## 1
Amino acid sequence: MLLDKDEERILAGEEGETRQKMLELLVALGKVFGAERLVPIRSAQVSGASYKTIGEYGLQWLNSLDAKAVVPAVLNPIGMPRERWQEMGVNEDFAQKQQAVIAAYERLGIGLECTCTPYYLRETNFGDHLAWSESSAVSYANSVIGARTNREGGPGALAAALVGKTPCYGLHLKENRKPQVVVRVQADTREWSIADYGALGYHTGKLVGNRIPFFSGINPDKDQLKGLGAAMAATGAVALYHVEGVTPEALKIPTDLTGLDTIAVEAAEIRKLFKEIPVEAVAVGCPHCSPAELEEIARLLKGQLVTMPFYVFAAQGVIEKNQRTVDSIEKSGARVFADTCMVVSPVMEQYEAIMVNSGKALAYVPDMCAAVARIGTIAECVRVGTE
Ligand code: F3S
């Protein structure tokens, strides 16, 4: 790999052992993936933040590091809300360990927002190079914004935050961002909700695997794109997709679909994922809610009381900017929690069946929470959660 003078200095240990080791890690990754150089990044999003996933060994590794992030960086969701963990029912032992993980990241200069929607907190633009970890955030950045990021592992994203650069390969390069398979949706999608797009992503991810799909026949808004991409990243390994006439690269860059495989998806295949099974709790906000989703939940819950635990998840910064909407949701007995989610929090393991409005949660809840997952629209979640 070609390194500039600054990078050579860091590699020689002139900026300390941690930055030296982090650059060694980036160079090793770059060599494995055939990168010719490093590219400066605008921001990083670091996974491996929940004690449930990194455990004691990960915590010890974080505590051994000594450097500060040189670009804006946030964390992925952790196992509990930083402030309201007792209210969510997190046990003291887990909370202490989670707080130790947070303190370790804070020492490294990583922002303590713990969210899979960093794009709601900091402007991210078309063409920006990023080092983000969480698969739905990566999908949104690449597909909906037109920024450029590979799906980084936790250590790679942390190294990028501490050095300010990432190896330039994969989706950082224009030539690797072209469609590889066409998905023709044969359905009347005019009334489709976020959950329908999540179910489409759940179904399609299994069919396309790690290829870059080009969709036709759909016209999703940004929240629906968020749900579609999150689910495809969960059941497949889709880090970038294009939607005809909608996503920025499909609009700006001429698309050649000649010779690509075509997959047809029909409405009935999506509808059959919506099964009416009894549930013990409702969890909405995977990925974390946008302001518009919070408003919709508040409107639907207005004047009602929930009859089962009803969780809503959003970034702390989004909650703070929409506090009146959040207060209105909580009048129903539902709770809006920051920093965590239905998949990474151990609290959700107490339920045997959970209703969600997300294709990604539909895919992950069975494995991560050992619970049956039911998908429905936000309106159906509110109906079930209040009946
Ligand atoms: Fe975000 Fe958790 Fe879903 S990290 S995408 S809310 S599984």
## 2
Amino acid sequence: MLKKSLAIMMTVMLGLMMVGCGSSGKDGQAPESTVKEEIKENIVVGFSQLGAESDWRSAHTESMKATFTEENGYELIFEDGQQKQANQIMAIRTFIQQEVDYIVLAPVTETGWDTVLQEAKDAGIPVIIVDRMVDVSDESLFTCWVGADFELEGQKVTEWLNQYAIAINIAPEDIHIVNIQGTLGGSSQIGRTKGLRDAVETYGWDLLAEMPGDFTRTKGKEVMEDFLNLYDNINVVYCENDNEAYGAIEAIESAGKKVGLDIMNGEIMVVSFDGVKRDAMSYALKGKIACIAECNPLHGPRVQAIIESLEAGEQPEKFYFVDEEIFSANETVKTLNINGKDYQVVHLTQEIIEQRYQ
Ligand code: GYE
């Protein structure tokens, strides 16, 4: 059985039964008091978040904090790793010392977790991995994982691009792409980059360059400025998240160029991932971002469901992939077929945006 932290709530009801003013009590005894002790067991969750680089990450943190509240029967210990694996390892070691009931880890990179996860296992603390994955030699080192299929997200965006390119009749070799990658070594970067590279190979597009933008707006802008200085024929910018896309758009517009889908007439097309904020969707509605593969950050309730099933003695699925959409305001591409499965493209309208962000 798991250790529980005891949050002892003392409800002290002083039943002072005063008999007469200044009296020492009934029959001369001490005042009668009733101490009622209610013992409520809160489940202690130590959550090592990797950082605060993007809108996606803020929504993810928010979802965890809103779920693991005292009202819901939890105590959440939150640690921000600030993009450093060493900080996350330190946080996990602290959680082990604190004898938390569960460790939740959103790992910055995939590799390098074996030792610390073995320590958690030896301490008998289940570890739930969220968002990016861990690449460990022994999968029994974590209980389960919940997150997105990042490679599929990449395949959706590139298949959308492929169909769009065919529809506007542009030759594959005339598609000149730059890739602003996410944080190198994290699963979302690895999967999305792979999705692009595979499509480049399959369709024969021209991949000019790849550089990490660390999933931030600032770095996305810097990288795009460098790309624009180096290449004068870029017509597609593959941004591995929306924050990088905002930065890239800023750089393109400051350079006096136009973002949009009309790449036959000199516009530069931006595609990206996440779709968490209204801002990103509004950009998509205007065609400033041509297409966005959704990445859903609302993992709090999913992790809660996993913990509840573990508490009930059940064994949750080892890997739980979240279903996600693909958005574009442009109606040219309607359906994507990837590995034999159809995905409808959600054609954005103001109404759809209002519904999603009430
Ligand atoms: O897409 C990006 C972020 O790993 C899915 O990390 C996550 C990615 C997300 O900061 O915005």
